[in-house]
Input
Amino acid sequence: MTAPAPHTGPAVEVQDLVFRYPGAADDSLRGVDLTIEQGDFTAVVGGNGSGKTTLCKTFNGLVPHFWSGTYSGTVRVFGQDTTETDVAALSHRVGYVYQDFGNQLVRPTVHDEVSFGPVNFGLPDWRARTEEALDTLGIASLSDRYTWQLSGGQQHLVALAGVLAMRPGLVVVDEPVAELDPQRAEEVYRRLADVNRRLGTTVVVIEHHAEFVARYCRSVLLMADGAPVWHLPVAEALARTGELAAHGIPAPQVVRLARAVEPEGEVPLTVGQAVGWLSARAARPVPDAGPASPPEAPAPANAPHPPGPPVVAALRGVRHGYRTVHGGLTPVLRDVDLELREGERIALVGGNGAGKSTLLRLLTGLKVPRSGTAEVTGTDTRSVRPAELADRVAYLYQRPEQMFLADSVRADIEMYPRGRRRPDTDALVADVLDRIRLSALADRDGRTLSGGQQRRATLGIGLAMTPALLLLDEPTSSLDTATRDDVIAMLDALADRIRCVVVATHDMHLVAEWATRVVALGEGRVLKDAPPAEFFADRELLDRVRVVPPQITALGTALGMVPPPLTVDECAGRLSTAVQEAGA
Amino acid sequence: MKRTERDTLSVEWVKLELLRTAYATRGGLLARLDPRVVLFWYVLMAASPWFTHNLTVLALLFALAAAAVVTCRVGPLVVGLFVFGLITETGYLVTAAWFFDGDLTTVLSLGELTLKLGTVSMASMAAFVSLDPEKLSDALLSLRAPALVGFGVSYGYRMLPILVDEFQTVIDGYRLRSAPPASRGLFGWRVLLRGAKITVYAFYPMMLNTAKRTRTTVEALETRGFTYAMVHSDGRRIRLAHLRVRPLDLAVLAVTAALIAAAYALGAQYPTSARL
Output
């Protein structure tokens, strides 16, 4: 195989593309016309099921060579018609990093994984290509590690390196933010921007988060119902807040703030631009206009003082860690003291590996601390079996399919109450199904539902256990924004049934909008335990726990608002009235 | 009874032991050799006990294989399972011999087979604990096994941690959500029964979840030239270029061959037979 010849036209040209998956009732792509120029950094946005991923799979020939459905129209990648070239030849020009990138890694060690492509194609310079790809992404030091030992962020970079080793002209990355913590997603974007700038590689990302689009992309392609709505430069695209919101992509918070201030005209895209934009319009935070604590947060819930509400669960002097494959002990929690009280909505934050999941598992009794004690409603978790503790604690896994043990949603929901012979099982299950709005789909296998429905089904499983303490691991990851809001609303609605809810999450919007108390884990300890506004005000801490605050909170901090605002409305309300009137 | 976090004999420990065994993390003598030589060594050791009925020879070979297990640092899980198997096997032999009116001769001739199988088992443990998936698949590829076999081996190892993880997650789900038995029963038989039931039930969700994850893998393989490499041989040449037989490899083979020969010679000198 020789290196592909240089090409001067656009990177991707799509004409009249229509595609239907075999056996599907509807077309997934219907009449796509599209041009992506070489060297562009394009974001493909759109709600779940709008055809984003299918479109991107036409670029490397997986559609129609691998997924052979009904296909018409043409896709040219660097001038080559994809129907006339096979997937192997196209892989020299197009690289693809999957949303579930962990499953893309097929070899045991990092070096082997990265060289897999070049070696398979028998490229004589495979060694140089491998070194180059590892260096470009700054992961040369991981070369001899086993891929299953790596963190999520590192695995993503390895998958990307494996793709870059083929020196493709176009790289497609499917939702990098879905499974990574915000700082690691940021790292992936920085590397992508660097590759785009230095090597001139065209980059296409599928992305739900408008804030990343605003900071890194040059153009935006909005997809709806299997066809592009428009493809515009990023500033122009993000100014169309109404259209984006209608397709389930809320504009970045600073854009929404700008729109609240001024309904027409140019908008800022980043926090830095927003500061300048607001000062040009003489908008300043009104001194003393904001209450000492944000109005949304009910005061009693976040008072961590002794005469507060009763304690639901407590950790005292907890130390825990895991054995590694080499026999050592990796400490995860070093010394954690924590009391979870009735009526609280607790967000547990911290980077990948900070011990969030470990802490939740200690509360379920699946693990017991190596030292210290964990108590749930006054019972030491060491003294009972996890099955008995399950009467009081429900734990919902990060990936919904891990919760589906039976062959229908109904069977999964009734497994717990039926097994315990609750007399009112039928009524309880019917009520739960009703609350999670899945009565109509109750007999389907949970795995066949959409992402949002799967989350609701797992919430139903938790509800049917009627726990005092509900623990959720990343309930909003890899959901589009509309679905995410739906899940948050559902969490709100459940408040009356459960005494205390703990959510481990990277989703700072969830923290800002839902939580009454934030517990930040880092270095094996609780680094901060405070209401959300106070938490987001501590910038030095945010860095330490690898958290990127919501844009609006960062903007508030940059404007000197104390405490920073948690929502766009709150921020707009606290800006000087002169601007408010000018805007009205 | 207070529960504590256990570092041995727990699901977590089994998982780590499997990984340690599969990925040869403990090192050892054979782990330093060329993988093809390790396979030859294995063939040599595994074939050696089948040419004799002389118990002296078999005992010596058994001891040699046991020494190999020690030098190759085989982990406690695998050795434990082997010893457990050996003990129950012996117990069974004695019982069977007694039940069918056999005598010492019966026990000895059945014991002969146990010795042979034990030698082969220990040789397998020593060899395969020393080969990580990469080495094993390279060796198979270089010995002209079909590319699919070589890859299958390496991908099978890749799947191992995933399967174990999925399995553990599903089991934990059952532990929490299915009802525990009201009483433990005699010798905890109800607890054991529940454990056995859960293990069987866990199979269906585990396989479905794993299958879902492999769909991406299959697409990724296609885009990264795996099918291409099946028909073109350039990749094979590059992949195998690093294999070298060094003096140490030959020395280990020679010493092993010499020890096997010595066992036979010694056995000829002092023969013991199962047939009295």
About this structure: The CA atoms of residues 290 and 574 of chain A lie 6 Å apart. The radius of gyration of chain A is 25 Å. Chain A touches chain B through 69 residues (CB under 8 Å). Confidence is low (pLDDT under 50) at residues 289-303 of chain A.
